[in-house]
Prior knowledge:
SH3 type barrels, 4 domains, single chain, four-stranded antiparallel beta sheet
Amino acid sequence: MSSPTGPxxxxxxxxxxxLCLLYTRRALPKSKIRDIVPQYGDAASDEAFDRMxxxxxxxxxxxxIPLVTEDIGGxxxxxxxxxxxxxxxxxxxxxxxxxxxxxxxxxSRTWAxxxxxxxxxxxxxKLKAAGIERDGDSLVGIEPRLGTSEPAFExxxxxxxxxxxxxxxxxxxxxxxVNTRRVQPWGLASWHGRWYLTGFDLDRGAPRVxxxxxxxxxxxxxxxxxxxxxxxxxxxxxxxxxxVGEREFSGSATVRVREGRGQSLRRRGETRGVEGEWTTLQxxxxxxxxxxxxxxxxxxxxxxxxxxxxxDLVVARLRGALAAHRALTGGAA
Length: 333
């Protein structure tokens, strides 16, 4: 297994340093710390280690970790040792209010079917193990729609974390022409329900923003690519906001929503009529694909009346889901 690089390597090194200093009973000198933390042992020289260690100490203190220095030398020696004060480091018992528990439960449901479901579920298990139960009743009417279903999400996320140059096919818009792009990934963020990659486009020679749903085919790591550094002032969401802009509604759809369902559509739509358990809404939307994704997630509880283009996209998605289900179950409906 290869060692992590870039931000991942730094995170692992800081974590190892924290573990080293947190669980020692007495302050440790730098020489001992260098022996214990693997990444320090790989330093090219004593000077390189000293610079790395000083930067890490400053970063831990900026993170609020109580790093303590103590004189561990004898009468004729002023050697300094380091440790983390466990009493200051430990968090006090945390009690959650019902509304706070609701947010935690909502967060776990948001990622329930995403590629990041593991960490969310683990966090909830830890809360549950501590005797904290999420308040499901307070989530009535809230239906999170933050998804990471794009096939490109996992490899792009890994490339951002590992600072690896990647190559992929990219549609310029809608079903436009697909061109190969080589990108140095800087960040990954969600903006108005869509995931975007920020980075430096090597072919265009300039920073660019890419919507993950427009990545076509496989995301590949560019071998023997030159190393790069993410700009220190880079803010992914700010770059996406200024590039993509605020959401502007470009159309309106007529949809029928079953009673008690489609809360996100109800919140932004206008009621046009009620017939039995069905409510007819007029819903503004940004683009056909985005609305089709949202509606198809409700299954049989939401029906698009018009425009026909969106209805056809929803039907295609539902048929695709049915075909995938039959493939997994051997043809059973």
